[in-house]
Amino acid sequence: MNEQISRKEVVQTGPEKAAKRVSILDDARLNQVVALMVESLEEDKAENVIVIDLVGKASFADRMIIASGQVDRQILAMATHLDKLLFEQGIKKTTMEQSPDWVLLDAGDIIVHLFRGEAREYYNIEKIWNVEILDAAQASTEEPQE
Length: 146
Fold this sequence. Notes:
By secondary structure, the chain is of the alpha+beta class. The chain has helices spanning 7-13, 27-43, 72-88, 117-123, 125-128, 136-141, and strands at residues 47-53, 63-69, 95-98, 102-106, 110-116. The protein has a 5-stranded mixed beta sheet. Strand 4 and strand 5 form a beta hairpin. The chain is globular. 28% of the residues are buried.
């Protein structure tokens, strides 16, 4: 029996009663898709690409990719290329939100934040997640940390 728990019930009862998120991709496939996404970002001249392992830290995704671009057109183009890549990899349900300074791409197991440099400094997502910054090539090949 698959019970749906409302957001209000989660707040009232606490997260331990909340339904667990089921990953769409297994770990090997997830790492493969993340590596392809990092490669796409690097081809698009993204700067400071990092991958954050969210397993055990968040219930909304397993990985978060953060990168910077020079101008709004560049970050929108990067997001469009990633969306196309995800579609080609069989991940057809993605959501994109955007502003002039950032683009958010939600692909279920993977969340991508693309920022202009100033906006990335302002939002400082790396600090929110309290992560040690690794370069993307190292992060995408390493095993997830517990």
